[in-house]
Write a structure and sequence with these properties.
By secondary structure, this protein is α/β, with parallel strands linked by helices. The protein has two domains: about 5-155 and about 190-215, NAD(P)-binding Rossmann-like Domain (Rossmann fold); about 160-190 and about 220-290, UDP-galactose 4-epimerase, domain 1 (Alpha-Beta Complex). It has helices at about 10-25, 40-45, 70-90, 125-145, 165-175, 195-205, 225-235, 260-265, 275-290; strands at about 5, 30, 55-60, 95-100, 145-155, 155, 180-185, 190, 195, 210-215, 220-225, 240-245. The mean pLDDT is about 95.
């Protein structure tokens, strides 16, 4: 097995990936945007001189929706992939894993259980960039004999994320303000994925050279109201919630059919969300009490 090369090692998910494989004593090389700017073909080319045909490449770098969601950011995300593929024409790899997004399915009129066959319906620039990225990589990898895995993860949270995810924002509000604001009635359902599960799925996909599309979710959704109640309880703070008038909701309920994941990864068996929330809140407290 060759080394693992990670693009996007400075992000929250990238940090978890790098730490996981490094702690296992496996050879992994990580590049953040400062060491390898995917928008700069020369910078990317210099960094990826280390690639060998037996290596595995993880593409976890992009301009996220939280940072910018515009026509310009969409074009930049696509340009990153174009620059990468120009380099891979010179030095190929064995396996490429691309971090896509559940946003490729759109945000409205979704089926009760989303699976890998659910039609794609991107509804903003970020989602379009992920769909485009998937198909560009699919064509290139097929033409060049590179195995390709496309991972679409749902609501990732965990270590090194203390500000951006939905769960991080809820915990921050309750921890600092002793109360929570809720838009709507709190009935909206979401599937929140601990980053540790995502990394373990990634590890299995690399070791077994899995190909194709995988939705990575727990398969169990929870309403925002029940999530908030659990956070209040775990933080041992009296329940205090402020209801705010709902504007047009960006998305409907999200439920995932994880049978494909269970079939490909037999040991995939997430614990109840309470277990992961407790672990996350412990990390959150340590981070904020430094």
């Amino acid at each position: 097995m060759g080394k693992i090369v990670l693009l996007g090692s400075s992000g929250f998910i990238g940090k978890n990936i790098f730490e996981y494989f490094q702690n296992r004593g496996e050879e992994i090389v990580g590049f953040g945007s400062k060491e390898c700017d995917l928008l700069d073909a020369d910078s990317l080319g210099r960094a990826l001189e280390i690639l060998k045909p037996e290596d595995t490449l993880l593409l976890a770098s992009s301009i996220t929706r939280l940072r910018e969601n515009s026509l310009e950011s969409m074009n930049k995300n696509i340009l990153m992939i174009q620059n990468l593929l120009r380099k891979l024409q010179e030095c190929k790899v064995k396996h490429l894993l691309f971090f896509s997004s559940i946003d490729v399915y759109g945000v409205k009129n979704l089926p009760h259980a989303i699976d890998e066959s659910t039609p794609l319906n991107p509804e903003d620039y970020y989602a379009v960039s992920k769909v485009a990225g998937e198909y560009i990589l699919k064509v290139f990898c097929a033409q060049n004999g590179i195995k390709l895995t496309r991972l679409r993860a749902s609501g990732v949270y965990g270590k090194y994320d203390y500000t951006n995810s939905t769960i991080a924002k809820i915990v921050t509000n309750i921890y600092k303000n002793k109360s929570a604001a809720l838009v709507g009635d709190g009935s909206l359902q979401r599937d929140f994925l601990p980053v540790g599960i995502l990394v373990q799925v990634l590890d299995f996909a690399i070791k077994n050279e899995l190909e194709g599309v995988l939705n990575v979710a727990t398969g169990t959704s929870i309403s925002l109201m029940n999530l908030i109640k659990k956070v209040f309880s775990l933080l041992e703070i009296p329940f205090d919630i402020r209801y705010e008038k709902a504007q047009e909701l960006r998305a409907g309920d999200l439920f995932f059919d994880t049978r494909a994941l269970q079939e490909k990864i037999p040991l995939f068996a997430p614990k109840p969300i309470d277990t992961y929330l407790k672990e996350y809140i412990t990390l959150f407290r340590k981070h904020n009490e430094k």
